[in-house]
Amino acid sequence: MLFSNSSSGISYLIVGLGNPGAKYDKTRHNMGFDVIDRLIEEYNVPQSGTKFHAMIGKGTIGTEKVLLMKPLTYMNLSGTAVREAVNFYKLDPATQVIVISDDIDLAPGKLRIRKKGSAGGQNGLKHIIAQLGTDQFTRIRVGTGSKPEGWQLADWVLSRFSAEDRKAVDEAIDRAAKAAACIVTDGPDKAMNLYNG
Known about the structure:
Blueprint: E1 12-16, H1 31-42, E2 47-51, E3 54-61, E4 64-71, H2 78-89, H3 93-96, E5 97-103, E6 111-114, H4 123-132, E7 138-143, H5 153-157, H6 163-186, H7 188-195
Parallel strand pairs: 1-4, 1-5, 5-7
Antiparallel strand pairs: 2-3, 3-4, 6-7
């Protein structure tokens, strides 16, 4: 797939992964949606309706125009929305796409920012990599805690946090939103130095 520099005025696509619908609200799998909501609030990004099989909002972070996205395809098909937006705006995933997801391999509240890499078992990331044909895009992973013994993975990622973990996760959502903004304004290396861990 060939990419060219965007002439659309959109500098960054910031995608939060999750599942639509009230029954998934505040579950472990919806970390990406929660971070997008925080960015919408922090930067007064107006809702722009639905496009690319996603809820979208266009706004500005620093001097850069951004498109915030919450795919409506459910987690395992997240790449459909990302690919459509990337193609429409002619974005380069390596420098203009940021994906925010949950990570069960990180403790609740921890962040991991990377500029490329495997999906690490996260099905939304796996589908995005398949649809874009590259793993070269920045991702922010928000820790949700490992699956306890005896739990099915699907039940765990769709469960909600304890009150104690919820406090750590709410703080991580704030930091993940700040990390996404830092990537936009100062680049991923600075965000990794400031927010990883």
